[in-house]
Amino acid sequence: MMAIKKNERTIFHRLQWSVVLAVVLNIQGTEAILCNRCQYSVGPLRDCVNPTNVSLPTVNCSAACLTSVRTIVATGDLYYIERGCDLSGTNGCDGLPVIEQCDYKCSDRDLCNDKNYEPAPKTTPEPWTGSTTIITETPGTRDCYSCVYSYHPDAITTCLDDPSAVPYGKVRCSPDRVCTIFRQWIKGENVVRSFSRSCLPPPNPTVNSCVEDTNFITYNTYCSPELCNSGDGMLPCPPPGGGGDGGGGDPGKAATIFSSSTGLIWIATSAAVVVLSNYHSI
Predict the structure, then answer these.
(1) How far apart are CA 270 and CA 75, in angstroms?
(2) Which of 113, 203, 211, 280 is deepest in the core (most CB within 10 A)?
(3) Angle at 90 (CA atoms; ends 89, 94), nearest 5 degrees
(4) What pLDDT was estimated at residue 31?
């Protein structure tokens, strides 16, 4: 009888500790920060730009809040804003020459991503009374499409689907630069994570490329004629690990290198597969 009571007390104490541990884990698991959640792209609805006097939708985030701001470098005009959870861990600006993206994360209080990004009103300049200087454009300068898309369930996809319909979606591109398309696909979610059209200095060598790894397929394409970067930016891309060793082996060692009749050069490694195609300009 005493042995039975002793076993009952032991079981009771274990149950007590189990309950305490469950409560502690539950408290830790519910820690979150409340963040504003909205998106703005060029247009008249600007609540997401200046949330000072409005109540934005909110979301519980596990780590920090984020405000992602994109501006047109040449004019300083606001192009895109997204507020929500910090998923990338980045903080700061990318310094791109056409549309610059700056990510600002915070976690000091709920709804900390509430900064007003409404630009100051532009003043009317004084009438010019000096001499006029005529600036001539370099021969060979042409238009390229210029726009940016980042994945969001409610994101505007005009940059992806119809770049000609994007407001202010063109940029003059000097002959020493090329029109570009960058496209990154998230394999696990089957969505385009990031997409941009731009005018950039050409890489060396200037070749279209497709890189596939465990999580992403990333495309970079380049072209020269007027408004040539209007397509979807996709290229043939063999699966990672394809080739002679069946996907295993040294991650830094090329498994297969060969040329196809289409003019593509495929370089396959167990870490990533790169497809390079010849760059053509007109």
Answers:
(1) 44
(2) 113
(3) 165
(4) 64
